[in-house]
Amino acid sequence: DTAVSQTPKYLVTQMGNDKSIKCEQNLGHNTMYWYKQDSKKFLKIMFSYNNKELIINETVPNRFSPKSPDKAHLNLHINSLELGDSAVYFCASTPGNRANTEAFFGQGTRLTVV
Amino acid sequence: GQQVMQIPQYQHVQEGEDFTTYCNSSTTLSNIQWYKQRPGGHPVFLIQLVKSGEVKKQKRLTFQFGEAKKNSSLHITATQTTDVGTYFCAGPEGAGKSTFGDGTTLTVKP
User: Fold this and answer.
1) From CA A68, how far away is CA B49, in angstroms rounded?
2) Structure confidence by residue, pLDDT tens digits, B37-64
3) Do residues A30 and A95 touch, judged by C-beta distance below 8 A?
4) String of DSSP letters for B48-99
5) Strand A109-113 to A10-13 pairing
6) Mutate which of B100, B104, B105, B107 to test chain A, going by most A C-beta atoms within 10 A?
7) Nearest in space to A77 (alpha carbons), one of A14, A20, A15, A24
8) Cβ of A54 under 8 Å from any chain B Cβ?
9) Whole-angstrom Cα distance, residue A17 to residue B37?
């Protein structure tokens, strides 16, 4: 019974391809996030959705497009993948959209662009 | 915007030694959180501190929130190999957003 689940766990793809990562949470939370963790382990927020509505959109290339079909799902589509997109992408959720409430993270998707 | 600085970036200790990581914010924080990420794993919530000067303990871990609510620390007494990982602090930054420190990666030599 994984609370926040992401698929796939590993993704290896060539430059220029388009790929998607899926995330689902069964906690009944209203807010979901995508974070990017680089090779130095720096954890940076990319997007946040509250009840399917985009509320945080950091300075991320528009090749990245999140989509939330319902409040339990938040997917991330990446167009025209570049080498620099290689990282671990974490999905997370919180009960509400107040700043700094306990976040539950998925297992991560390790994306490698070759 | 708010910055949350965390030091040191890396810490190598012998098993049984103590370990401390420090988190400093450029602005006053309403609260601060700590997370642990095991190697190959995902960040897991440890604790949240809210009050000025607050100290909380979890077994060998002691968390402190500064009087000015601009800094925090995590201290581990007598480290064990199970303590290895990266420890992150996180502070709120406006509209539902948390800013994570850069993390301190702890390695423990048996």
Assistant:
1) 31
2) 999 999 999 999 999 999 999 999 999 9
3) yes
4) EE-STT-EEEETTEEEEE-TTSSEEEEEESS--GGG-EEEEEEEE-STT-EE
5) parallel
6) B100
7) A20
8) no
9) 30
Q: Say if A10 is an interface residue toward chain B (CB within 8 Å).
A: no
Q: What is the pLDDT of residues B86-96, one digit of tens each?
A: 999 999 876 66
Q: Is the pLDDT of residue A53 over 90?
A: no
Characterize B22-55 residue by residue with b for buried, 16 or more Cβ atoms within 10 angstroms of its Cβ, and e for exposed: bbbbeeebebbbbbbbeeeebbeebbbbeeeebe
Contact A13, A81 (CB under 8 A): yes
Residues constituting chain B: 110
Chain-wide mean pLDDT for chain B? 94
What count of Cα atoms within 13 Å lies in the side-chain half-sphere of residue A101?
15
In this structure, what token pair is assigned to residue A97? 């959209």
CB hemisphere CA count around A35 (13 angstroms): 24
CA B94, chain centre distance (Å): 20
What are the helix (H) ranges across A5-75? Answer: none
Q: Check B31 against A41: CB less than 8 A apart.
A: no
Average pLDDT over residues B27-42: 95
Q: Is B30 on the interface with A (CB under 8 A)?
A: yes
Chain A residue at shortest CA distance from B86 = A41
pLDDT at A1: 63
